[in-house]
Specification:
The complex is a heterodimer of chains A (114) and B (114). Chain A is an all-beta fold and 114 residues long. In chain A, the strands form three sheets. In chain A, strands 2, 5, 6, 10, 11 and 12 form a six-stranded mixed beta sheet that branches. In chain A, strands 3-9-8-7 form a four-stranded antiparallel beta sheet, with no helix packed on it. A two-stranded antiparallel sheet of chain A has the order 1-4. Chain A starts with a strand and ends with a strand. Chain B contains no helices and eleven strands. The chains are: A mainly beta (114), B mainly beta (114). At the A-B interface, strand 5, strand 6 and strand 10 of A face strand 9 and strand 10 of B.
Chain lengths: 114, 114
């Protein structure tokens, strides 16, 4: 069965500093990895995904993520955090033939402090 | 149009009421999903429709009844709900259910069961 771990419930970062939100995954085959962001009382917004190819994936709002197969990780990064980046971030994994289309991590709350 | 719309935004119902949640997308997506999300938790998959046919039912109680009238519409009929069913109900769509496609989420319906 596929699973995703987000080891941090909360990440705090000062505005202008780089941010990292961690994600590790477990699948039996090739993973498809996704990051979503959720602002208060809103649905989830797709940020980026890794399917195959270049390990560094660039997405919306200046976010990027690096796929690391040996460490089974897919950490989300941004060079310079904005206060408006404060939100709940979910990592998710799926597989080509999995019965469950998307499995989410528990989420990490990012707070960017001015 | 890259939007998934959901109505109503908020719904308060008693345990004996019957109500319906509605979801619509005009992106030509052939897969549609219902999720339930409790506060500060990841979305939990309830149902998946693929090409207007129910393909996944994640052991959801029968008081939740999904319906897909056509490829653009998805309904969730509610009857005899319990207070613990209070949550944010999210609809999503994707091009397919292969696992490669990202899901587009609606803003959700905030349901309160009294």
């Amino acid at each position: 069965a596929q699973s995703v771990a987000q080891p941090e419930d909360q990440v705090n970062v000062a505005e202008g500093n780089p941010l990292t939100v961690k994600c590790t995954y477990s699948v039996s085959g090739n993973p498809y990895l996704f990051w979503y962001v959720q602002y208060p009382n809103r649905g989830l917004q797709f940020l980026l995904k890794y399917i195959t190819g270049d390990n560094l994936v660039k997405g919306s709002y200046g976010f990027e993520a690096e796929f690391n197969k040996s460490q089974t990780s897919f950490h989300l990064k941004k060079p310079s955090a904005l206060v408006s980046d404060s939100a709940l971030y979910f990592c998710a994994v799926s597989q080509l033939s999995g019965n469950t289309p998307l499995v989410f991590g528990k989420g990490t709350r990012l707070s960017v402090i001015a | 149009d890259t939007e998934v719309t959901q109505t109503p935004k908020h719904l308060v119902m008693g345990m004996t009421n019957k109500k319906s949640l509605k979801c619509e997308q005009h992106m030509g997506h052939r897969a549609m999903y219902w999720y339930k999300q409790k506060a500060k938790k990841p979305p939990e998959l309830m149902f998946v429709y693929s090409y207007e046919k129910l393909s996944i039912n994640e052991s959801v109680p029968s008081r939740f009844s999904p319906e897909c009238p056509n490829s653009s519409l998805l309904n969730l009929h509610l009857h005899a709900l319990q207070p613990e069913d209070s949550a944010l109900y999210l609809c999503a769509s994707s091009q397919g259910t292969s696992g490669i496609s990202e899901q587009f989420f609606g803003p959700g319906t905030r349901l309160t069961v009294l």
